[in-house]
C-alpha cells in the first residue's frame, strides 16, 4: 500500500516512514490529506464498481475510483471521480455494503446532479478536488507557494468559490438523494445484487447521527439520512428477490483480505487482531499479522509469515507483491525482484504499480543487466500509472546508473510534471534536451513539457 501525499498525526508519520515509495506533497502536509495507491485494493474496488457502472450506463464515462487514506466512513463523487475512504472499506463487513455505496454515488452521476459543477471538476486534478473538499486552506497555500501538486486546472473555480464548491459538493438536494437511492436500487437489481448493504450503511449512519455528541461523519453531511428516507429505501430494497442474496464467498474472502491489509497498515497489530479475533487462523488474519509485523518494523520477522501464506496460496499476485515489498525492506532485492516478477505474471489486471515495484527491485540489485531491465519495466508500469510520480525517481536513477543523463533528466522532468511542479519540470526538460538527439521521441516529449501551458485561474 503506497501513500501519496501527507499524513498529519505522529502514528501516520511512522507509517509513512516505513512505507516504501511513499512521498510527501508539502502543500498538504498541514492538513493530513492523503491518497492511497494499492494494486490489490484498486483491483477489488474496480471489480465492485464495474457491473454497477455498466448498469448505470456509465462504463464508458471514464469514471475513476480514488482511495483516500482516512479512517472515517466517507465516499463522494467529484467530477468523474468517486472518492472512497479506506475507513469505509474497513468498516464495511461485506462487499455488498461498498457496492451499495458505489451504486448510490453512481446514481448521483447518472442523475446529472450538479452537472455543471461536475463538468468543471472533470478537468480538475484529484488533489485539488480533495483539498477543496477536505480543507481549502491547504490548497490555497499550495497554489501560492507553487508547490501544490496536482491541482492546477480547476483551481480557479475551486479557489474562486471554494466555500461554495465545498458546500455544493457535500450536499445534495433531498430529492436528489431520493433519486440516487432509487437509481442505486435499479442498478443493484439489474446486476442481481442485494440493496441490503446500502440500507445497512445508511441505517448505521442514521443511528450515529441521532446520538447527540457523537462525531459527525462526513458521509452524513453529504448524504443526510432522515428516518423517512431509510424507511422508503427499506421498502424498495425488500421488494427485490435478491434482498437476501449474499456476496460470493471468493469475493468475501478478497474483501476480508483487503480489510486485513488496511487494518494492518493503518492501525497496526492490535486492531488487526481484534478484527479477526473470532478466526485467528484464517487467511485474512494471517495476512494481517504478516503485514503488521512488517509495518511495525520487523521485515525479517514478516518474511517467514508471508512465505507460509505464499506457499499455501501460490497463485495470488498480491501475496507475492507483499512478499516482494517485505524482501526489499529486508535488504534482499534479488529475491524481491523474483517475487515481483511472479506477482506481475499472475496479475490479470496488469497493475502499473506492481510493475513499478518490479522495476524498483531490479534497480536495487545494482546488477547492470537488471538495471537495464528495470528501465523497461518502470517505463511500462508508468505508462499505465502516469501520475505515480515516485516511479519517475526510480526511472531517473536507473537511467543515471546506465549513463543516460538526458533520459535521467527527462524522467526527473516527468516526475515534477506529474506532481504539478511545472517550473521544475520545464527546467529539467530543457536540460534533458541539451543531451538528447534533436527530434528524437524523448526530445519531443521534453518539448511537450516545456510547451505545456499551466491552465489559468
Ligand atoms: Zn447521496
UniProtKB/TrEMBL annotation:
<dbReference type="InterPro" id="IPR001915">
    <property type="entry name" value="Peptidase_M48"/>
</dbReference>
<keyword id="KW-0862">Zinc</keyword>
<dbReference type="Pfam" id="PF01435">
    <property type="entry name" value="Peptidase_M48"/>
</dbReference>
<dbReference type="Pfam" id="PF13432">
    <property type="entry name" value="TPR_16"/>
</dbReference>
<protein>
    <submittedName>
        <fullName>M48 family metallopeptidase</fullName>
    </submittedName>
</protein>
<keyword id="KW-0645">Protease</keyword>
<dbReference type="InterPro" id="IPR011990">
    <property type="entry name" value="TPR-like_helical_dom_sf"/>
</dbReference>
<dbReference type="InterPro" id="IPR051156">
    <property type="entry name" value="Mito/Outer_Membr_Metalloprot"/>
</dbReference>
<keyword id="KW-0479">Metal-binding</keyword>
<keyword id="KW-0378">Hydrolase</keyword>
<feature type="domain" description="Peptidase M48">
    <location>
        <begin position="38"/>
        <end position="235"/>
    </location>
</feature>
<keyword id="KW-0482">Metalloprotease</keyword>
Amino acid at each position: 500500500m503506497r501513500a501519496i501525499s501527507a499524513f498529519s498525526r505522529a502514528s501516520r508519520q511512522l507509517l509513512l516512514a516505513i512505507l516504501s515509495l511513499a512521498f510527501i506533497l508539502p502543500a498538504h502536509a498541514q492538513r493530513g490529506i492523503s491518497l492511497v495507491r494499492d494494486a490489490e485494493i484498486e483491483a477489488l474496488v474496480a471489480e465492485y464498481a464495474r457491473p454497477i457502472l455498466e448498469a448505470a450506463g456509465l462504463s464508458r464515462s471514464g469514471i475513476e475510483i480514488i482511495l483516500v487514506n482516512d479512517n472515517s466512513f466517507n465516499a463522494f463523487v467529484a467530477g468523474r471521480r468517486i472518492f472512497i475512504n479506506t475507513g469505509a472499506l474497513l468498516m464495511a463487513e461485506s462487499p455488498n455494503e461498498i457496492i451499495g455505496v458505489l451504486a448510490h454515488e453512481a446514481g448521483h452521476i447518472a442523475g446529472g446532479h450538479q452537472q455543471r459543477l461536475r463538468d468543471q471538476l472533470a478537468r480538475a486534478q484529484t488533489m485539488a478536488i480533495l483539498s477543496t473538499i477536505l480543507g481549502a486552506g491547504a490548497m490555497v497555500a499550495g497554489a501560492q507557494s507553487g508547490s501544490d501538486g496536482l491541482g492546477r486546472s480547476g483551481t480557479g473555480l475551486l479557489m474562486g468559490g471554494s466555500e461554495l464548491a465545498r458546500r455544493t459538493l457535500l450536499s445534495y438536494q433531498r430529492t436528489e438523494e431520493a433519486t440516487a437511492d432509487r437509481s442505486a436500487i435499479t442498478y443493484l437489481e439489474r446486476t442481481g445484487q442485494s440493496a441490503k448493504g446500502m440500507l445497512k450503511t445508511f441505517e448505521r449512519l442514521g443511528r450515529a447521527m441521532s446520538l447527540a455528541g457523537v462525531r459527525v461523519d462526513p458521509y452524513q453531511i453529504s448524504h443526510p439520512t432522515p428516518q423517512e428516507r431509510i424507511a422508503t429505501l427499506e421498502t424498495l430494497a425488500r421488494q427485490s428477490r435478491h434482498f437476501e442474496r449474499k456476496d460470493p464467498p471468493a469475493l468475501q474472502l478478497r474483501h476480508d483480505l483487503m480489510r486485513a491489509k488496511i487494518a494492518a497498515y493503518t492501525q497496526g497489530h492490535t486492531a488487526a487482531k481484534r478484527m479477526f479475533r473470532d478466526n485467528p487462523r484464517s487467511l485474512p488474519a494471517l495476512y494481517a499479522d504478516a503485514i503488521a509485523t512488517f509495518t511495525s518494523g520487523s521485515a525479517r520477522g514478516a518474511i517467514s509469515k508471508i512465505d507460509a501464506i505464499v506457499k499455501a496460496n501460490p497463485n495470488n499476485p498480491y501475496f507475492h507483491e507483499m512478499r516482494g515489498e517485505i524482501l526489499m525492506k529486508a535488504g534482499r532485492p534479488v529475491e524481491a525482484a523474483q517475487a515481483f516478477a511472479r506477482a506481475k505474471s499472475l496479475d490479470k489486471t496488469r497493475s502499473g504499480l506492481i510493475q513499478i515495484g518490479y522495476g524498483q527491485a531490479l534497480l536495487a540489485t545494482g546488477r547492470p543487466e537488471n538495471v537495464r531491465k528495470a528501465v523497461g519495466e518502470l517505463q511500462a508500469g508508468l505508462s499505465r500509472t502516469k501520475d505515480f510520480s515516485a516511479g519517475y525517481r526510480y526511472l531517473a536513477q536507473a537511467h543515471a546508473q546506465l549513463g543516460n543523463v538526458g533520459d535521467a533528466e527527462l524522467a526527473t522532468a516527468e516526475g515534477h510534471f506529474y506532481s504539478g511542479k511545472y517550473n521544475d519540470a520545464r527546467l529539467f526538460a530543457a536540460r534533458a534536451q541539451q543531451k538528447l538527439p534533436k527530434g528524437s521521441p524523448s526530445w519531443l516529449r521534453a518539448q511537450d513539457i516545456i510547451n505545456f501551458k499551466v491552465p489559468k485561474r
